[in-house]
Amino acid sequence: MKKFIIGSILSVLLLTVAISIQQDLLFAKPLPYDDEQKGLDTQITIHLSHVVAENTPKGLAASKFAELVEEKTNGEVKVHVYPNASLYNDENEFKALQDGDVDMIIPTFSKMTTYLPKWQVLDLPYLFDTDEDVHNVLTGAIGEQLLEELEPYQVKGLGFWHNGFKHLTSTDLPIHTYENLQGLRVRTMPSKTLEKQFEAVGATPIPISFSEVFSDLETHAIEAQENTASNIYSKGFYKVQQHMTLTKHGILGYSVLMNEKFWQSLPTKIQKQITEAMKETTDWQFEQAILMNEKDLRKLQQMDDFEIYDMSAEERIRFKEKLAPLYDYYFANVDDDKVLEQIQKIVSQ
Question: Which of 63, 130, 179, 291 is buried most deeply by CB count within 10 Å?
Answer without folding.
Answer: 63
